[in-house]
Specification:
alpha/beta, Rossmann fold, Arc Repressor Mutant, subunit A, 2 domains
């Protein structure tokens, strides 16, 4: 019999830990929560033989989520990690990807989005997402965006929230969400990580 998948949550906010745990348990996922990275490391479980995922907050008192990710990679533990942050930026997302993060979500996010990403990570296991497209294809996707979508694209990759983007451009949050959905569709990506990687690829080409 296949064992129940398990998700570990490391976040210093008790309300977030509780809400995420309730959400994941509603779809029959085993959940263990930790308020600090040190407590997670002290109770580091045996993760062999189970579909596993770690939801890891980036900014916490004491050891940060990024520092824990570095520690896990140094120990070569096969634990897929989804980074959670309220202040994403390109540099942080790229660093997380180089350290082997499976995904990168910016708060606030919908419960369904989180469930979709967790289920995807549990299915694929420790496989880091890749963006193996040519520069020509990346430019073709970029050229398909409208001028406003390009502006929103840049702001998303800089880590701005939908609320901030809406205020900057004098548009509604719902309009920003619509732009974001079309950007993801036109750029043919499913996560912020892939969107950031595309942005990095395009910026590197422009600076070459």
């Amino acid at each position: 019999m296949t064992e129940t998948p398990v998700v570990y949550i490391v976040d210093d906010d008790p309300d977030i830990r509780k809400s995420l745990a309730l959400l994941l348990r509603s779809v029959s996922i085993d959940v263990h929560t930790f308020p600090t990275c040190d407590e997670f490391l002290a109770a580091l479980p045996d993760i062999n033989g189970r579909a596993t995922c770690l939801l890891l907050d980036v900014r916490m008192p004491g050891m940060s989520g990024m520092a824990l990710l570095e520690r896990l990679r140094e120990q070569e533990l096969p634990l897929p990690v989804i980074m959670l942050t309220g202040h994403a930026d390109i540099e942080m997302a790229v660093r997380a990807m180089k350290l082997g993060a499976a995904d990168f979500l910016t708060k606030p996010f919908s419960g369904q989005l989180l469930l979709d990403r967790v289920q995807e990570v549990l299915r694929r296991g420790q496989q880091v997402p890749s963006l193996s497209i040519s520069l020509e294809e990346a430019h073709a996707r970029w050229d398909a965006l409208t001028p406003r979508e390009k502006e929103v694209f840049d702001r998303i990759c800089a880590g701005a929230s939908n609320k901030v983007i809406a205020a900057d451009f004098g548009i509604s949050i719902r309009t920003v969400e619509s732009h974001r959905a079309r950007i993801m569709e036109k750029m043919k990506v499913r996560s912020l990580v892939d969107l950031v990687l595309l942005s990095v690829k395009l910026k590197a080409a422009d600076q070459a």
